[in-house]
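lol so apparently i was supposed to do this last week
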Amino acid sequence: MRIVILTGAGISAESGLGTFRDKGGLWERHDLKDLATPEGFARNPALVHDFYNMRRRTVRDAQPNPAHHALARLQKDKRYAVTLVTQNVDDLHERAGSDPVIHMHGTHLVALCAGCAHRWPAPEEMRPQDRCPACSDGVARPDVVWFGETPYHLDEILPAIAESDLFVAIGTSGVVYPAAGFVELATEAGAETLELNLEPSYRASAFDAARFGPASEVVPAWVDEILSA
Ligand code: APR
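anyway here it is w/ adenosine-5-diphosphoribose bound
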């Protein structure tokens, strides 16, 4: 069975990482135009680096939760061809044992040269004066996909959805496209669709089925059901 799983910030919420749009979320406390757009980075790179340095430290001190571990278990079961796509820029899926993980919004653990597009492991603290080690004059930025930029790996993700038997969205609000539209592509491909979330997302009506509750409970329960089939 071919399963495509899309995760969002909700799967990492119980690991202590804030989500974006829940009450008190990151986009309530910060202006995303300043922190998650190329224009914001050009205007004030120090502010953007401070934000991602803080997120990098928070992720470093966080642990994968039972939802991450359950997906890693599912990925290891050879009866299922699992494509794990995440909108998250943290590495909690990898630290739970998932491999591969497709980061469609990049990861803040990698630095990107705004000039030559060279990539290297991001230092704990990135600073506006950091320059690219390859071309030496390009400005270093976090390798994350900002609003207005093209998500990564769609050439892998879209065919996987087109051939999937089951599409599962976990902990995502269904606000940001193209990820929010994946459920329609899965339905068009004839796949069953399932939403696992704390509450109905903005795309809830597009799913065949849903289970609500904290990811650390709902995801392991769903995976155990699948693996005992
Ligand atoms: N268990 C399961 N789901 C949860 C939990 C939890 N413990 N806590 C919150 N959620 C759900 C919320 O109900 C919501 O649907 O997680 C979702 C979080 O939504 P957002 O904060 O919008 O995060 P996400 O959907 O990942 O955002 C998508 O927006 O800002 C951009 O690039 C950023 O990748 C991000 C994208």
